[in-house]
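lol ok so funny story. i was supposed to be doing the assay writeup but got distracted and ended up predicting the structure for this chain instead. priorities right. anyway since i did it might as well share w the group, maybe its usefull for someone
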Amino acid sequence: MNRQPMISFVGAGPGAADLITLRGALRLSRADIVIWASSLVPEALLMHCSKQARVHDSAVMTLEDVTEVYRSNPKAAIVRLHSGDPSIYGAIQEQIDWCLEHQRSFEIVPGVSSLGAAAAAIGRELTVPKIAQSVVLTRLASRTSGSMPALESLPAFAVHGATMAIFLSASRPRQLAKALLAPDSAYTPETPAVIVVRASWPDQQVIATTIGSLAEDLLATGVKTTVLVLVGEAVGSLPAPRSHLYSPNFAHGYRKRSQAGSTAGRPAAGATAGTRARRP
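and the output, tada:
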């Protein structure tokens, strides 16, 4: 088996074992060493590993413990398996900095974020024409408030009324609801909100609510981790305005406007029409 001495930061996906990418599964199958967090990544993901791989559980490890594994195994193919997509609250930058400082080869293998899994679970698009065209990914400043830049507080973002995805904030439900309804917020107590617990896991929970009832509904779940809260008009159940993209009256580089009285698409000059056969 072809193993290269590389540290691969692999997104495990949001929870479901079949939501890891093909590339991520391939890296696991070729890894000599795998470091994973049992508290965030299902053990079922380890089925992609070879029987010879050494597995470390980072739930009880510090950054120094992890980098010591890197340091003491310079010729190994190592997978650092992170939940969701490692670029979002993945704490990988400090590991990347270590790799750069110690001249170690590394790569990042993207994963399916819990944001995508949560949107799929509620059956809604998060960017709806005329309702929301922006998604804010953020968290409530709590025990790690020192990490939060001054201009990125929840009340500061709430002014815009965009769709908001709030990570790592379920342990302080009343503070969360209060921040969303701070003075100048574009949200109201009636603004739709959805609580998604353990998105894509077998025990996934989806609770549709409003910001006004958010705190009580969060408390009722009894869950403080692996929770994503989605807020904004786009996550509600109102019918969405039609997108321009597939409108008969909208033209783009591949399609002309439909002829008067017709909704049929017309290829633009140079565009290929019809169904393409799959190449053998």
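The chain has seven helices and twelve strands. The chain has two domains: 7-112, 115-235.
back to the writeup now i swear
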